[in-house]
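Handout, section B. The chain below has 349 residues.
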Amino acid sequence: MVTINEIAQIAGVSRGTVDRVLNNRGGVSPKTAEKVRRIANSLNYSPNIAGRSLAARKKALKFGVILYSDIVLFDSIENGIDRKSKELTEYGVELMKVHVPFHDIDSQINAMKELASAGVCGIVISPPDHPDMIEMIDSLYRKGIMTVTYNSDVENSKRLAYVGSNYRECGRVAGNILGLLSGFGQSAAAVVSGERIAQSHPERAKACIDKLLADYPEIRIADTAVCKETDTDSYHTVSALLAANPDIRLLFLNDLGVRGGVKAVQESNRRIHTVVYDRVSLFQEDLRQGRVSFLITQQPWILGELPLDILFRYFALDIKPTSSCYLTDIEIKVAENLRRPFAPYPNLL
């Protein structure tokens, strides 16, 4: 929901100047008018939507967001949620945040029930792939409460939309990176993944392996492992895997306890090219010091902001999602591009 004030701020002109340009009232130089229109178009500004946004203040909407207290990735997502929440507050939207453990499906479902009882009309959640979660989302749908999923998805539910990466594409990117790191010579690789709580982990792992098998036949898949999504378990899993396979030189860590896996690689005193997924804040120093070769990320700030935007457009502006899936860009991070600022997402809506 772009406002005239925001366009004015970006363009470096007054609100009145923007109003005159967008309403063709004249009195503005052609150069400035062209600049204002270009910015407005790039941000998908619509006077009709702006008017409806003002009317939305009378609806007193309430949204709920469920976050996981034991996963660092969600700190970056929560930053995006807080930015969007501050914006939506101006339109009378109340946001309720609930933190629950990632592995506790009962706590997640209970949190959804509590939010529904508190009067929310929309819920944002990164759901586990579990029949009880599908049933819960469908039950809320029948009551008129819409769910937007982020980061992980349950495709066969009645959720309103999904915001996140394409799991398989992420896995193929990881496989391609490992293949290129091999230098097209004989090498051994391993893939460590998290438990099948969410669709994303096993699908990323499988896509990575499939890519290596299809395009890099000189690379041998030495081992695969599944860990319990904690730093401690990842550490022990990777330590055992490396001890049993002294020839491993390529590693994809695709679990939530990946920090422990990186520590195990470091303690092995072996030159292992390691590709990790998400949690930019955790791996800045590892990338700089060469302990991690590449980090694949899915723009976590968008995962925080866009689901709330979708709910606001749906309930306040009567704008239905144009897609059931809003896929974030897959970004490859190295030490040199860690500080790249977050980008807006008008192209996704």
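Note. The first strand starts at residue 62 and ends at 68. Compare this with the example in section A.
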